[in-house]
Amino acid sequence: QVQLVESGGGLVQAGGSLRLSCAASGMIFSIRAMAWYRQAPGKQRELVATITSGGSPNYAESVKGRFAISREHAKNTVYLQMNSLKPEDTALYYCNIGVRGGQYWGQGTQVTVSS
After folding, report:
1. Which of 41, 84, 35, 92 is closest to 62 using CA atoms?
2. Share above pLDDT 90 across residues of the chain, in percent, rounded to a whole number
3. What average pLDDT is seen over the chain?
4. Which one, of 109, 111, 107, lies nearest residue 2 by Cα?
5. Whole-angstrom Cα distance, residue 81 to residue 79?
6. What are phi and psi of 84, to 5 degrees?
7. Hey, is 73 helix, strand or coil?
8. Backbone angles phi, psi at 88, to 5 degrees
């Protein structure tokens, strides 16, 4: 009965910022990591950022220095602060929570960056 709901996407100009949120509901135990993925039209879904249950973040090289992942673990919530956005960041962004025995996915939130 776990559900992940993303929010915060939108249309911004290049150089602008957005903050994505993902709120999880339901009974979730043994969270190993939270992550953000994105998928642009015609491309494979790619991993953008992860944060472990211990709070250690990792980023795709393309977003290092621009994006920041954070979480409120007790609330099963993960955020993605996106700064200095580029048109190539345009994609559908998905929240993911990895747990013991599997993963849960959100429905996605659209981020569009205009030039």
Report:
1. 84
2. 79
3. 94
4. 107
5. 6
6. 50, 50
7. helix
8. -70, -10
Q: Report the C-alpha gap between 24 and 40 in whole angstroms.
A: 24
d(Cα 32, Cα 6) in Å, to the nearest integer? 19
For residue range 6-21, what is the model confidence (pLDDT) as tens digits?
A: 999 999 999 999 999 9
The pLDDT assigned to 30 comes to 82
The token pair at 77 is 């919530």
Q: Look-up: residue for tokens 């993925």? A: 37
Cβ contacts of 18 within 8 Å, gap of 6 or more: 8, 9, 10, 12, 82, 85, 111
Work out the burial of residue 13: count CB atoms within 10 Å of its CB; fewer than 13 is exposed, 13-18 middle, 19 or more buried.
Answer: exposed
Buried residues in 41-53 as b, exposed as e (16+ CB within 10 A): eeeeeeebbbbbe
